[in-house]
Write a structure and sequence with these properties.
The complex is a heterodimer of chains A (131) and B (164). Chain A has 131 residues and is mainly beta. Chain A contains two helices and nine strands. In chain B, α2 packs across α5. Chain B is built from five helices and nine strands; from the N terminus they run αββββαβααββββα. Classes of the chains: A mainly beta (131), B alpha+beta (164).
Amino acid sequence: MRYEHPRLGFSIELAEAWELASEVPPVFLAPGARELAFAPNVVVTSGRAEALEATVAGLEHARLIDRESLAGGAERTLIHHVVRQTAVALEQWWFRAGEELWVSSASCAALDYDERADALGAVAASLVPPP
Amino acid sequence: VSAELPAEVRDPRVRLRLLRAGEQIDAWLGDEAVVLALPSAEGPERLELRTYPLGFLPGVLADLIELGPRPRHDRDELRLPAATLAAALAADGQERERLAEVLREPFALTRIEAEPADGSPGVSLELLDTATGLWLVRADGGDVVLFPTTATRVFRGLVRLALA
């Protein structure tokens, strides 16, 4: 199901049993997320382009694991960092739309990453910024 | 083993060993925590035991093997005699030429083994980290086969090791 945000204008493909947890900021929870200590989620943000290095520097105990250039000038990154004593895998998809940068950020506990990576990545990668 | 050592060391659920560049790092995994024996700043003869929540282990391993973005390559898998890889730096002649494209220096061979204490099958990950990109190394009889891989796939492998 493709979800279209009523105010921000982006759309994103949600697989079955994904839920919208918050409209603003847009937060989507993976199936079963509420039963876990760290809920696997995808958050969509937009703003002026910010260097990846600044993002990494702003995270606690962050390590940039992977960075991949995609078609159309998009990028995908994988960062490991710590949030409130929890090790987290953060996979981000960066899309440029004019002067704006739209980012879909998929997070889960690091130990859940191998099991969740494909599903989280599929949702995060499906972001389409507003025209 | 001294009773003063952490419970994970005295009665580990899994023993993990990381081999890289002639160094060995041992780790002992419990249900909630992992203890690593890391080189001590006090000298090469001493080790420092550090305890982390188990969830930190993939990240700690990523730090230890300096995992990060690498060039992506779409080369075919490469099969070669295991002895050749083991002696890669010393290889010469035709084998050296074959390896030159893959083993462009600097490169590092890392092996991480996780051995469950209950006797169930272990998990291992062998990685060749080169200037041209990352390769998974798998044994196949007397050969090894190098498979092109990515840092993301390697990180997923580190997670599987932590869950062994």
